Structure formats: C-alpha cells, structure tokens
Amino acid sequence: QVQLMESGGGSVQAGGSLRLSCAASGYTGSRYCMGWFRQAPGKEREGVATFDSDGDTRYADSVKGRFTISKDNAKNTLYLQMNSLKPEDTAIYYCAARISGGYCGLRPEGFGYWGQGTQVTVSS
After folding, report:
1. DSSP letter (8 states) at residue 115
2. What phi, psi does 112 have (nearest 5°)?
3. Which residues contact 48 (CB under 8 A, 6 or more apart)?
4. pLDDT per residue over 84-113, tens digit each?
5. 114 torsion bin: left (phi>0), alpha (psi -120 to 50), beta (else)
C-alpha cells in the first residue's frame, strides 16, 4: 500500500518561501507519476506541478518560474520549493502519486494515492 506523508506547510508573508516535502513508501514499481495539487476554500482541486520517473516536470502557468518540483530517489521524497509566494497561493497542498507510466499531467483524476494535505497560508 502506497503511503504519502506531506510536511513543510505553514504561514508566510507575500514574497516569502516555503518548501514542502512528501515522503513516499510502499511502492516498488519503476514507473510512476507524482505531483503536488492544491485546493483553496470554495475552489476545485488543481494541479500545481508533476514529476515522473523519466525526470520530466510540468507546472501550472500560475506557478511557473516561482515553484520547483524535485525528487530525492534515495529518500523517496518529493519536494516543492515555493518562492515569491503570493496570497493567491494560499491553499491546502496535497501530494499525490500514480504507480504507472504514461502522460504525467496536472489533472487530479487518475492519481490513486493521496497524502493528508498540508496548509499553506500567504498573507499580504
């Protein structure tokens, strides 16, 4: 059973930085797609960034140039470095995984494993 555990959320002023971590365990396959998603109050869950087993990354337009997704394979941990944070980045951030190959896009459908979420609050 795949388990994902996020950490690193918190409160920061606009322009600040945070790094989210997602520790993954319980999978053995070599092909995967992992990503970060977020959900603000009253809004649908949206994709922020994804990282696949080929090392390819994808970003939502709203975070390009500010956020960086990466993975430490030795630690089985996915990261999201968030710089130049804006109040509109405020949301619960979720780590998600799909243990298969194929297109690793930003839509939440198809991701079968989810973490519990971590709150990110950016004040102006």
Report:
1. -
2. -90, -15
3. 35, 36, 37, 38, 59, 60, 63, 67, 80, 93, 106
4. 999 999 999 999 999 988 889 999 998 999
5. beta
